[in-house]
TrEMBL record:
<dbReference type="InterPro" id="IPR002110">
    <property type="entry name" value="Ankyrin_rpt"/>
</dbReference>
<feature type="repeat" description="ANK">
    <location>
        <begin position="552"/>
        <end position="584"/>
    </location>
</feature>
<feature type="repeat" description="ANK">
    <location>
        <begin position="490"/>
        <end position="522"/>
    </location>
</feature>
<feature type="repeat" description="ANK">
    <location>
        <begin position="357"/>
        <end position="389"/>
    </location>
</feature>
<keyword id="KW-0677">Repeat</keyword>
<dbReference type="InterPro" id="IPR036770">
    <property type="entry name" value="Ankyrin_rpt-contain_sf"/>
</dbReference>
<dbReference type="Pfam" id="PF12796">
    <property type="entry name" value="Ank_2"/>
</dbReference>
<feature type="repeat" description="ANK">
    <location>
        <begin position="107"/>
        <end position="139"/>
    </location>
</feature>
<feature type="repeat" description="ANK">
    <location>
        <begin position="173"/>
        <end position="205"/>
    </location>
</feature>
<protein>
    <submittedName>
        <fullName>Ankyrin repeat protein</fullName>
    </submittedName>
</protein>
<feature type="repeat" description="ANK">
    <location>
        <begin position="661"/>
        <end position="693"/>
    </location>
</feature>
<keyword id="KW-0040">ANK repeat</keyword>
<dbReference type="Pfam" id="PF13637">
    <property type="entry name" value="Ank_4"/>
</dbReference>
Length: 878
């Protein structure tokens, strides 16, 4: 023990001495303190002989005492001798004393070449640190790197020398370092050279590096190392792509820790290899299987070393069980399970992938039909309830017709949720599996839920088998998969389901097996309520009653109209459906058709003599009902509504029937803005001056953006019936600058008026918009709004107030109007005695609806009466 301790102290002392020398050497170089003899020195021979002895203390003594007596050549010679003999401390001492690290012997070999060839790694590093030239060549063209490559060479030496070296430099014989490395078969050095740019296509004597490697049986390694460099992948990742066991074993043996290195995508070598097998689709060879076994074992051992506790194991990378299952070899799955793979870990491609895209090993095995693997995974407690985008494992097995796997999964599923297992068997229309379940779990085949599922999934074979068992098909039952949004209720009979799903064939089978065509569901509906035309006709031939009422007092025709099924409506009418029946809400089939806005069905009902004169709730006719519902009205429906109105008008509908608000169909159409409909109503004799309970007329309701309706009404002798509506109309027409409508309105309840500044009606003229608090007349408003064409017409027509001929003519607005107009005769006549007298009489009779009766009783000529009522104007001018 004492001897060993003494030896360790000696080694430690030598190491400390060497480090001190290196430090001192660096300081001397920086300080430039080295001084040597430039010619032959008196102590040259002594130094050379002493270096040959290898006694460090003697060499140091000579260099310290006789430095100036030693020549550069002697120092260089000694440096080469020390390099050849591996004298590390002497090498440092000579470099410190000024020896040239790039000197050479008679063969051109430098100290670095001598150290590299002999494997002196530390001495080579010291020389390179002191600026030794790694690219210097000897007399035969060898570099230090080329000389370092031997059968007993070190990869560390190659790693040191390759930095800064020309790795493709050839010697006089055409050899490159890579060629020599191939010759000696040093794989690690080959790897280092290729990673640092060695050219694998170089040749010597017509033979390339790859051809030379092929002869040696190591060409795979060159390909792997080249792939590593090009693809920037770890060695093992590149190696597994060649599917060569020997290659992979060699890489695992010489490169420690390579099993833990992942690809650029983060995949392990095992994952990359499995992906390769699956993508190349060449099948699994015995060698492939041995490779997978080797990689699993290596990964397992690496995990045991790096993650010894459970906490670390949770963060470890998962084994690729899902991918491995796809190969279809139960042994591989078994190995992975033994190595710790979790059978219920879902494979999710990214963090953003929704949970519905889960994919478990069991799903993969079930989809591919790998029975033994399914059996193994179930034995390992694989969860059969996990559901992905394509359903559960059982869904996948059934969908891909793997009956053996399906039976296995269903039996496991049935123990937990028997009804779900039966539903899946029916869903995939698999009679074999269904009967297997019935026999295994001793189930009653008369269960109506099975028939319900058969209809739902269109499983005809199973449906027929179940009908043969003579179940009570007229019994009402509660559906297990009820959808509240479905038209049919939860408690139904089978016939209602087949009709609602438009399954004619299933409906026929039920009726042939004595299903009652008039059986009702919990809402009181028969199958006719849900039938399309084909099923309707078959039900009618089987004795279905078209006038059975449901809980709302409605018959099948109501449902057909609501669903806009004109062909079914016609079939029901032909079978005797009551066309004018009122339900519990006093609604008729025609009302339902109006509400659904279906011209075809309305025409059909009218053809079958539906009563279109029925007065509905609120006093509505079918016309007003159609027009009163803004919640279902859109302008895109105007053409369809126009077509419906044409049908109703053709059936002698009372066009002037008023609803509870006193509105007629014309008034509602005006309020909505339906120009074509208004024109149609006027042509059919609608009363254009009808007044509702709020004092409104069609005209007052039409004072909106579209003036076309106003023009239609005015040309049809419509009149304004209140001064407020008159004032509103005048403001609207002037503000819109529509002279035509203004001219049409004069004399139709629109007469000259003056709104005082303190009168509430002033608000009609948007007082906040005006610049003063003056009184307002139609003329003053036209001038303020600069509607000069309208203003001129009002003056010419004497549509004036006393305010206009007394105060207004003095305002700035009037003066501006005077300057802009060219009709000077207007102003010459404005203050004529006749005009002033006319205006005085006009003002006396006001602008109320009574004006006409008052004027007619005046003892004045008829032409003057017409002028006071503005009836003398040429209609073409209006």
């Amino acid at each position: 023990m004492k001897k060993q301790a003494k030896k360790q102290l000696l080694v430690k002392s030598k190491q400390q001495q060497m480090l001190a020398l290196l430090d001192e050497l660096e300081k001397d170089f920086k300080a430039g303190q080295l001084s040597i003899c430039l010619s032959d020195g008196a102590q040259d021979e002594t130094l050379i002989n002493t270096v040959n002895t290898g006694i460090y203390s003697d060499i140091k003594n000579i260099l310290e005492k006789h430095r100036e007596s030693i020549s550069q050549d002697a120092l260089n010679t000694c440096l080469i001798k020390a390099s050849e003999s591996g004298q590390k401390l002497v090498l440092i001492l000579l470099i410190k004393s000024g020896a040239n690290v790039n000197c050479s012997d008679q063969y051109g070999n430098t100290p670095l070449m001598a150290c590299a060839q002999r494997g002196y790694y530390d001495m080579s590093r010291i020389l390179i640190t002191n600026k030794a030239d790694v690219n210097k060549v000897n007399n035969v063209g060898d570099t230090a790197l080329l000389l370092s490559i031997t059968k007993f060479g070190s990869a560390d030496m190659a790693r040191l020398l390759v930095l800064g070296s020309n790795v493709n430099a050839k010697n006089n014989e055409g050899y490159t370092p890579l060629m020599k490395a191939v010759d000696v078969g040093d794989l690690e050095v080959i790897h280092i050279l290729i990673l640092n740019g060695a050219d694998v296509t170089d040749s010597k004597g017509g033979e390339t590096v790859l051809e030379k490697a092929n002869k040696k049986g190591i060409h795979f390694f060159l390909n792997v190392f080249t792939d590593c460099k090009i693809l920037k992948q770890p060695t093992l990742i590149a190696a597994v792509k060649y599917r060569d066991l020997n290659l992979i074993q060699t890489v695992l043996s010489y490169e420690d820790g390579c099993i833990d290195q992942g690809s650029s995508k983060g995949e392990t070598a095992l994952e990359v290899f499995i992906d390769l097998i699956l993508s190349e689709k060449k099948g699994l060879s015995p060698e492939d299987k041995r490779i997978i076994n080797l990689l699993i074992l290596k990964e397992y051992n690496a995990r045991k070393i790096s993650t010894p506790n459970k906490k670390n194991q949770q963060g470890a990378k998962k084994l690729p069980l899902v991918k491995a299952v796809q190969i279809g070899d139960v042994d591989i799955v078994k190995w992975l399970c033994i190595a710790g793979a979790q059978v219920n870990d879902p494979d999710i491609t990214s963090k953003s992938t929704p949970l519905t895209n889960k994919w478990t090993p069991l799903m993969s095995a079930a989809k591919e039909g790998f029975f033994e693997i399914v059996e193994l995974l179930l034995a390992k407690d694989a969860d059969i309830e996990i559901k992905g985008a394509e359903g559960t494992a059982l869904d996948l097995a059934m969908n891909h017709d793997h009956l053996d796997c399906a039976k296995l999964l269903i039996e496991r599923n049935a123990r937990n949720a028997k009804s779900e297992a039966f539903r899946l068997a029916i869903q995939y229309n698999n009679l074999t599996v269904f009967l297997h379940l019935i026999s295994t779990f001793n189930k009653d085949m008369k269960n109506l839920l099975y028939l319900d599922w058969s209809i739902l999934f269109n499983s005809e074979n199973i449906f027929r088998i179940l009908l043969d068992e003579k179940p009570d098909i007229n019994q009402r039952f509660c559906r297990s998969h009820y959808n509240p949004k479905s038209p049919i209720p939860k408690s139904v009979c089978l016939l209602h389901i087949t009709a609602s799903y438009n399954h004619l064939q299933f409906t026929e089978m039920l009726l042939h097996n004595n299903a009652d065509p008039n059986v009702t569901d919990s809402n009181g509906n028969t199958a006719l309520f849900y039938a399309n035309k084909d099923i309707c006709n078959f039900l009618l031939r089987s004795g279905a009653d078209v006038n059975v009422k449901n809980a709302k007092g409605q018959t099948a025709i109501f449902s057909a109209i609501e669903n806009r099924m004109a062909d079914v409506v016609e079939a029901l009418l032909e079978a005797g459906a009551l066309i004018n029946l009122q339900d519990d809400s006093e609604e008729t089939p025609m009302f339902k058709a109006i509400y659904t806005r279906n011209p075809e069905i309305i025409a059909l009902l009218i053809k079958w003599n539906a009563n279109t004169k029925t007065v509905l709730k609120g006093g509505h006719s079918y016309l007003t009902e159609l027009l009163r519902l803004p919640r279902v009205f859109y302008y895109s429906h105007e053409a369809r509504d126009t077509q419906i109105i044409q049908h109703l008008l053709a059936s002698s509908n009372d066009i002037n029937l008023e609803n509870e608000d006193g509105n007629t169909a014309l008034m509602l159409a005006c309020n909505i803005g339906m120009v074509n409909v208004v024109q149609m109503f006027v042509e059919h004799g609608a009363d254009v001056n009808f007044v509702n309970k709020f004092g409104q007329t069609a005209l007052s309701l039409s004072l909106k953006e579209n003036l076309n309706i106003v023009k239609i009404l005015l040309t049809s002798n419509a009149r304004f019936n209140s001064i407020l509506h008159c004032q509103q109309a005048v403001f609207f027409f002037i503000n819109r600058n529509d002279a035509d409508v203004t001219q049409l309105a004069l004399g139709r309840g629109v007469y000259p008026f003056l709104v005082k500044s303190d009168y509430p009606g002033q608000l009609i003229f948007h007082k906040g918009y005006r610049n003063d608090d003056n009184d307002v007349s139609p003329l003053s408003l036209a001038l303020q709004e600069r509607r000069y064409k309208i203003a001129a017409y009002l003056i010419e027509s004497r549509f004036l107030t006393n305010y206009d001929v007394t105060k207004l003519i003095q305002t700035d607005e009037f003066q501006e109007f005077t300057l802009r107009t060219e009709k000077s005769n207007i102003f010459n006549n404005l203050l004529s005695l006749y005009t002033l007298s006319f205006v005085q009489v006009s003002d006396l009779h006001g602008a109320t609806p009574e004006r006409e009766s008052q004027v007619l009783f005046l003892p004045i000529p008829q032409p003057i009466k017409q002028q006071l009522l503005f009836q003398h104007l040429d209609p073409k001018q209006r």
